[in-house]
Amino acid sequence: MEPMLDNEEFFRRSYVTSIEPPQRTGPVNVEDIKADLSTEFSLVSPSSDTSQVRNSLESKGHIQVCLRIRPFTALERENEFQDCVSLEDSASIILKPPKNSLSRLSEKNAGQMIQKFTFSRVFGPETTQEEFFEGAMRQPVQDFLDGYNRLIFTYGVTNAGKTYTFRGTEDDVGILPRTMDMLFKSIQGKLYTAMDLKPHRCRDYIKLTKDQVREEIALKNSILRLTKEVENDFFLY
């Protein structure tokens, strides 16, 4: 006997078809969420004043954007120096079109292509790893140690220098090793030496009894023993 699919007892409408279509409410007014960025991405003029823009950026306090300009590579130095990026002050840069393109532009158009960008702080190509860490990283790391949440990441195009800034080299480490060094030095003498705390879920922990501590130690030793046996078997083969 076939089921009666047309009966309400057996037939259920899908989630999509069971939802009533949204009612049109007319055009949405977005005037209150529009942002005027003309002051931050404006053409450079002799009388331009960036102090107001910089104070506005610093007063928000939600995000800090630091720009680090990497030096030219040996291959890039072989080509004509275009002087496209120049530092105006510690927080602003000026971008100009390449010199080889100026011949194809009128004086008016060339002037319109000159732009000024303002950041929280700008680090020139001569900036060392230590100087960059002290100027851009030490305070956020200290804020983290004081109990505040901080997120730091590098962003840029390929070959912009992100890996060098973040990791550095063996002889000149970047912001990540320097941050870890600062973190570990800050907890010297403050470590909890007892082995009776066990992580629980994602953000909690359990304090173990003496019997539970012995069980955990035995479990750890058995796992390490198995690991050594596997390594020995691997070398035998």
Automatic annotation (TrEMBL):
This is Kinesin motor domain-containing protein. It is found in: Cytoplasm, Cytoskeleton, Spindle. GO terms for cellular component: mitotic spindle; nucleus; spindle microtubule. Belongs to the TRAFAC class myosin-kinesin ATPase superfamily. Kinesin family. Residues 62-237 form the Kinesin motor domain. ATP binds at residues 156-163. GO terms for molecular function: ATP binding; microtubule binding; plus-end-directed microtubule motor activity. The keyword Nucleotide-binding applies. It comes from the Eukaryota. Keywords: ATP-binding, Coiled coil, Cytoplasm, Cytoskeleton, Motor protein, Nucleotide-binding, Phosphoprotein. GO terms for biological process: microtubule-based movement; mitotic spindle assembly; spindle elongation. PANTHER family: KINESIN FAMILY MEMBER 20B, KINESIN-LIKE PROTEIN KIF11. The keyword Endoplasmic reticulum does not apply. Its main location: cytoplasm.
